[in-house]
Amino acid sequence: MIRFFVLTGLVSTTVAATVGVSSSSSEASPVDRRPSIWLTWWLGDAAGDALFAPLLILWAEKPRSRWETSKLVEGGLLLLSLIVVGQLVFGSVLLRGPRDYPIDFLAVPPLVWAAFRFGQRETATASFVLAAMALWGTPPRPGPLPSRGPQ
After folding, report:
1. Using CA atoms, how far apart are residues 85 and 136, in angstroms rounded to an integer?
2. 79: closest CA among 53, 52, 48, 118?
3. Quick one: which of 72, 23, 54 has its CA closest to 123?
4. Rounded-to-integer distance, Cα 77 and Cα 52, Å
5. How far from 23 is each of 16, 26, 86, 150, CA to CA, in Å?
6. What's the number of CA atoms in the CB half-sphere (13 Å) around residue 35?
7. Domain locations along the chain
8. Rounded average pLDDT over 13-25
């Protein structure tokens, strides 16, 4: 597992970020901003590898086992808690008003629940669900790369 993370999360993302930043034009990425653009590119690729690769590998690797009714109910409650916590922390559906509350760590208990009561596959899926909700709930802000959309 460590070798996999080193090869995918470190080596491949380093190559991708280096090639991507060095091949971009100086207009798109000025020389003085290239280190921060490279780091942003690398972090995005590494986070994607660390989150998405285990999900794919774990779901492709083992055959699914049948769950008992109690496990299905618990899985449904876990999914419901992931949705509620994801909306509280990352969304705007359930929480209206000021967003200055330190509620980021509310996402940890459902992941701990998944890790202790379910297997690696379900824990990776729970992490992916929360990450997708975080991505969906993140407002677009200017970053190191210019927007290519309509101005």
Report:
1. 14
2. 118
3. 54
4. 23
5. 11, 9, 37, 24
6. 1
7. 1-61, 67-139
8. 83
pLDDT(14) > 70: yes
* Tokens 């994607």 sit on residue: 48
Give the CA distances from residue 55 to residues 1, 65, 122, in Å, rounded to whole numbers and listed in that order.
Answer: 14, 17, 9
Query: Of the candidates 61, 54, 56, which has an alpha carbon nearest to the alpha carbon of residue 4?
Result: 54
Bigger pLDDT: 141 or 27?
27
Alpha carbon distance 124, 126 (integer Å): 5
**Any idea which of 7-16, 49-58, 109-118 has the lowest mean pLDDT?**
7-16
Q: Residues near 119 by Cβ (< 8 Å), separated by ≥ 6? A: none
Q: For residue 66, which phi and psi values (nearest 5 degrees)? A: -75, 135
